[in-house]
Amino acid sequence: MPKMKTHSGTKKRFKVTGSGKIMKQQAGLRHNLEVKSTQRKSRLNHDQVLSKADTKTVKKLLGL
């Protein structure tokens, strides 16, 4: 059986922490930034833990 290939798009978008959680970048920071407040942009700029429902799928794509 050949090795599973890591999904290229997934490895660019997610990172795995030491404890095994998967982190993602929040949506909403790509355009229309002059409309959004500084506090909102600051809050959106932090990484977020992926939801439990999506974790299984992403781990499979990452080959974990």
UniProtKB/TrEMBL annotation:
The organism's place on the tree of life at top rank: Bacteria
Single biological process term from Gene Ontology: translation
An MF annotation (GO) of this entry: structural constituent of ribosome
InterPro entries: Ribosomal_bL35, Ribosomal_bL35-like, Ribosomal_bL35_sf
Listed Gene3D superfamilies: 4.10.410.60
Amino acid composition bias (Basic residues), ranges on this chain: 1-15
Keyword Cell inner membrane: no
Disordered, as annotated region: 1-49
GO cellular component labels: cytosolic large ribosomal subunit
Keywords assigned by UniProt, alphabetized: Ribonucleoprotein, Ribosomal protein
Family affiliation: Belongs to the bacterial ribosomal protein bL35 family.
Listed name of the protein: Large ribosomal subunit protein bL35
